[in-house]
Amino acid sequence: MRAHPAGPRHADQLNDTTPGVPPDDVNQVDPSLWPTGLVREASGQLSIHGHGVAELVSTYGTPLMVLDETDFRARAQQFVDVFGQQVFYAGKAFLTTDIARWSADLGMGLDIASGGELAVALRAGFPADRLLFHGNNKSVAELTTALEAGVGRIVVDSFEEIERLAAAAVAGGQRPRVLVRVTVGVEAHTHEYIATAHEDQKFGFSLAGGAAAEAVSSVLEHSSLELVGLHSHIGSQIFDTSGFEVAAHRAVALLAAIRDTHGIQLPELNLGGGLGIAYVAGDDPEDVKQVGAELKAIVERECRAYGLDVPTLLVEPGRAIVGPTTVTIYEVGTVKPVELDAGVVRHYVSVDGGMSDNVRTALYDAEYTTVLASRASAAQPVLCRVVGKHCETGDVVVRQAWLPGDVVPGDLLAVASTGAYCRAMASTYNYVGRPPVVAVDAGDRPPRVLLRRETVDDLLALDMGAPAVVGG
Questions:
Q1: Domains of the chain, residue spans
Q2: Cβ neighbour number for residue 469 with a 10 Å cutoff
Q3: Which of 89, 117, 187, 371 is the most exposed place for a label (fewest CB within 10 A)?
Q4: For the whole prediction, is pTM greater than 0.90?
């Protein structure tokens, strides 16, 4: 291992999966981890499509999420090139009316998972017939609104929902297209909390236990429902297609059983999303073209084995499109060296956000990459933990980071790959307002606010208590 520069001995075991050696150049930005428009300028500061972080922060403040629209469109186009209009952008990763419109412009469908996400899509004017509605506990109101809007596909997740949807369809005079969500018993090699295809979880109908076949029969018994396919989702942050291969084998076997039992061949197979992205050096996601070729070959091979017509293959990328496009900019507030034992020092770098704008580190033990954004530095790197301002010990943004030893309050840090499930899962914990999201692109347009910063007035707007009367 490379020796650390002279000085106090630093902790190198904060995270078993991150190397305990500093980078050769602490100022370098690895292009595999950052939006395509991001560079470090000659002045030392980071910029995205010519918009320097200092300029952006002076206008919009910190914390600030900056989304590279050009990068978003390019990543989405890769999926469209491979899968055509069978790509459904997973809005749960991050959704605004503008992103819905970009998705529509690119020919994608949109995967929604709540009445609120449906409302965003409808406000954006997204074509309802290209919406796909997920969720394990959709209410009657949500289903009714979806039917009235003409949502193209509804993924049913329970026997209660089948009955609920069938009744709503009869009442409204509609016949929605339905997919049955199948739990295929495949656990992707990922964190327990985001692996969704094993048996002991809330989603879908068990294949092994026979519930999936029973759900298919139940849907077919309702003339108000049109069964068009099966849905499977095996987890998140998946870097290879081996899990999809097992899932496809089991799902196609069910398609064959449906043909043999009911005399019909379902036209669609949705293998969900979950494709991973690079958060730290060493993460190596597969190329979209390669993934597409492998998935299509897997399904075609399985269908040939059962003598089935090959169904239309649907996919639901979310993180793989929006995740790498966004950078979060924080301002450093305090730097606190903490001696853990004799000569072992960990530097706690506190920033003006935290788990309210990125809960993934606390929730999933997620890893991130961060660099000094407002300037370059020739100082020797020190091992740091970037933490937030919230009243929680677990309020960690980046568990292990090598930053220049001269980082001081007022410096700006950039955290990579924060487009997926950061602003989407943001909260107002400790009454800290959620950050704005600003889009930039490779053209000559100025930055555009997709979501504005949440203000104190916003935070107090739901509080129905009367304000105190001063001097009363």
A1: 9-67+324-455, 69-323
A2: 6
A3: 187
A4: yes
